[in-house]
C-alpha cells in the first residue's frame, strides 16, 4: 500500500533528512509538536507495530539505536526526549507505515505515568 512515507522513501516527495541508511530514514516532521520533532521510519513497509514480525525485531532495535544517536546529535539526549509510536486509529496513527516520533527540545507535558510515583 502506497503512503506518503513510501513516496518520501522513493524520493518523489522531498524531506529534510536527519539520518539515512539502507534500512532506515529519519527526517524532520513538517508539523512539529516540539522544537525537535523527527520521524524515524523503516524503509520496509510495515503498516504498524501490530504487523512487526519476529524477523523485523533487529530492524526495530536498530531504529531505537538510531533514535539514541539522533537525540545525541541534536543535543536533546541529556535534557530528555520522547520516542513515540502510535499504533492504530485510536492512538492517532495517521499514516499506515510504522514510525516513531522523536520529540524534545523543550519541557514536555506529562503523559500517563509521567509524574506518577509508579513511573
UniProtKB/TrEMBL annotation:
Keyword check for Nucleotide-binding: no
This protein's record includes keyword Transit peptide: no
InterPro entries given in the database record: Histidine_triad_HIT (IPR001310), HIT-like (IPR011146), HIT-like_sf (IPR036265)
Occurrences of domain HIT (ranges): 4-113
The entry's keywords: Hydrolase
Active site per database record: 99 (tele-amp-histidine intermediate)
Placement of sequence motif Histidine triad motif: 97-101
GO MF terms held by the record: hydrolase activity
Name of this chain's protein: HIT family hydrolase
Taxonomic source organism: Paenibacillus stellifer
Amino acid at each position: 500500500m502506497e503512503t506518503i512515507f513510501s513516496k518520501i522513501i522513493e524520493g518523489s516527495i522531498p524531506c529534510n533528512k536527519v539520518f539515512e541508511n539502507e534500512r532506515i530514514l529519519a527526517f524532520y516532521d513538517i508539523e512539529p509538536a516540539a522544537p525537535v520533532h523527527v520521524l524515524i521510519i523503516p524503509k520496509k513497509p510495515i503498516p504498524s507495530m501490530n504487523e512487526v514480525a519476529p524477523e523485523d525485531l533487529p530492524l526495530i532495535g536498530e531504529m531505537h539505536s538510531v533514535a539514541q544517536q539522533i537525540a545525541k546529535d541534536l543535543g536533546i539526549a541529556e535534557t530528555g526526549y520522547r520516542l513515540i509510536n502510535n499504533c492504530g486509529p485510536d492512538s492517532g496513527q495517521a499514516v499506515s507505515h510504522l514510525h516513531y516520533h522523536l520529540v524534545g527540545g523543550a519541557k514536555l507535558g506529562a503523559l500517563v505515568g509521567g509524574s506518577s510515583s509508579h513511573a
